[in-house]
C-alpha cells in the first residue's frame, strides 16, 4: 500500500496526558498537512510542512500542540496536557508539487480524551 | 479569510437517479482551486473531482461533474446514475494559491435502493 498511513488509528487517553501521532506520507510527496476533524464538521487546517520546514500554523494550534517532520519524510503531531476538547479525528494528508497540489488523505487517528 | 458553505447538511437520492450538492465560497482571490472530497463511513477521505478557477470548462469525472460559476462563487457537484457506494459525506474544499485549504461542513448523502 503506497498511500498515506497514520498510527495509531485510535487513541484513548486521560486528561492531562501527552499523546503523539505519526504520519507517513506518500513517498514522493514533499508537502505534508495536519488537520483536525470533529464530529459532523469538515477538516480544519492545523499546520503544513514543505520538506522538513513547517511553513504555516493555524491559530487552532495552541502551544500544547507541536508538529515535526525531522527528515522531510514522516511527521509527528504531539499534544501535551490533553484536554477533553482535544477529542477529534486527526487527519494527515500529503501532496506533491504537481499542478494542482492535490492532497491525499490518510485514515486518521481518532483521539478520545476521558 | 476564505469561507466555504455547504447549505445542505443531508441529501437523499434514489439509486440510479441524479443528485446535486451545493457549495458556495467567499474569496477575493482570482487564482484558486476547488475540490469535492468523499468520506465514506469510517473510511478515509478521497478526492472526487477538482476544478481550477482559471478554467471555464466544468470538470467531469465519469458520473461526477461540477457546475462552476466563478462570478457567483458557486461550485456544485452533480452525481449521475447514483449508486449505493456513493453514500458518504461529501466535502467541498477551497485551496488558495498559497496552499491554504478550507473545507465546508459537509453534506451527508444517502442513496436509497
Describe this structure in words.
The complex is a heterodimer of chains A (114) and B (113). Chain A has 114 residues and is mostly beta strands. Chain A is 0% helix and 49% strand. Chain A has strands at residues 5-7, 10-13, 19-24, 31-37, 44-50, 53-57, 65-68, 75-79, 88-95, 104-105, 109-113. Chain B is globular, with a radius of gyration of 13 Å. Helix content of chain B is 0%, strand content 54%. Chain B is mainly β and 113 residues long. In chain B, the strands form three sheets. In chain B, strands 2, 5, 6, 10, 11 and 12 form a six-stranded mixed β-sheet that branches. Chain A binds chain B through residues 4, 31, 33, 40-45, 48, 56, 91, 100-108, and chain B through 4, 33, 35, 37, 43-47, 50, 52, 91, 93, 95, 99-106.
Unreliable residue runs of chain B: none
Query: What is the structural class of chain A?
Result: mainly beta
User: How many helical stretches of chain A?
Assistant: 0
Q: What is the rounded distance between the termini of chain A?
A: 33 Å
Report strand % of chain A: over 45%
**Total E-strand runs of chain A:** 11
Q: Averaged pLDDT of chain A, please? A: 91
Helix content of chain A: under 10%
Based on secondary structure, the structural category of chain B is mainly beta
Largest interface: A-B, 21 and 22 residues
| Envelope shape of chain B | globular
Amino acid at each position: 500500500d503506497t498511500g498515506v498511513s497514520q498510527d495509531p488509528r485510535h487513541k484513548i487517553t486521560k486528561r492531562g496526558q501527552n499523546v503523539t501521532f505519526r504520519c507517513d506520507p506518500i513517498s514522493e510527496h514533499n508537502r505534508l498537512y495536519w488537520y483536525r476533524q470533529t464530529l459532523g464538521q469538515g477538516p480544519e487546517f492545523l499546520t503544513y510542512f514543505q520538506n522538513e520546514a513547517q511553513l504555516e500554523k493555524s491559530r487552532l494550534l495552541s502551544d500544547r500542540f507541536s508538529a515535526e517532520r525531522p527528515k522531510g519524510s514522516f511527521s509527528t503531531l504531539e499534544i501535551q496536557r490533553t484536554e477533553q476538547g482535544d477529542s477529534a479525528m486527526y487527519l494527515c494528508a500529503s501532496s506533491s508539487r504537481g499542478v494542482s497540489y492535490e492532497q491525499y488523505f490518510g485514515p486518521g487517528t481518532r483521539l478520545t480524551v476521558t | 479569510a476564505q469561507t466555504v458553505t455547504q447549505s445542505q447538511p443531508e441529501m437523499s437520492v434514489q439509486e440510479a437517479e441524479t443528485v446535486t450538492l451545493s457549495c458556495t465560497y467567499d474569496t477575493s482571490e482570482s487564482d484558486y482551486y476547488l475540490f469535492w472530497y468523499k468520506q465514506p463511513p469510517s473510511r478515509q477521505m478521497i478526492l472526487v473531482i477538482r476544478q481550477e478557477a482559471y478554467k471555464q470548462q466544468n470538470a467531469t469525472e465519469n458520473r461526477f461533474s461540477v457546475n462552476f460559476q466563478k462570478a457567483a462563487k458557486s461550485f456544485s457537484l452533480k452525481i449521475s446514475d447514483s449508486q449505493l457506494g456513493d453514500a458518504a459525506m461529501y466535502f467541498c474544499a477551497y485551496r488558495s494559491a498559497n496552499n491554504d485549504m478550507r473545507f465546508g461542513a459537509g453534506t451527508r448523502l444517502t442513496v436509497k435502493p
